[in-house]
Amino acid sequence: MSDDPQYVIPIHDERQLVAHANTVYDLVWRVDFKAPGFAVLDIPPGPDSHVLRAWMVKLKQRLTEIGISRKRGGFIYKSMSRFDQQVTTKFHLDGAPDQSLLMLGYEPSKVESRLFLADYTRAAFDLGITPGQFLQEYNPMYKKGEDLLGLYITELPQPMEGHSRLVAINNSSLPFSEVRTNSLGVLHKAIIVTPDDTERRFINSTMLAVGERDEISLEQQKEFIATDKISQRDY
Question: What range defines the domain where residue 171 resides?
């Protein structure tokens, strides 16, 4: 996978996950535009859905330790869910505080899809406005706004057959700060190329925010790892 972009990190086990956590933090939890604001952990066949979710929890723990050590604060859970989604979306932020990190665990699927990230914070900066103003004045749900994002869009490479993925996305809505204190977010969207109600496209989702006390109990976290249920099914 040597041809993959620098934001795609191959991992095979939890040891490698932990070893690459600092890189993930630097790629995702950016304070300037040198980093993309997202990272992809590519996982070859082997680890199942439960392992994937356990790794998501482990990565959150490690990112919290890194944030605290760098005096930027740790992460707390705002939500955890598992769903089956085959609905195309427009560029958007998921509802969360203005400093938040979305972690998505994609299970292998035969449903063809494409995932895009848009650096709307950089687009807003180049226009001399805040990210909030950009979303208000150039709503990317509509063509004019999405067209403005054209130069700031990255499409993630397709996963190899049978691979899982852990995608970490900066979901923040703060503007760039010269003192490098604000975490800078990106928008995301998915296009479902071949919806198929006979197949599944399972996504495990956790929303993180900066804070000191989790809003999700340890028991709920264990249930998130252990469950075979889905929160919702979107077609």
Answer: 8-234
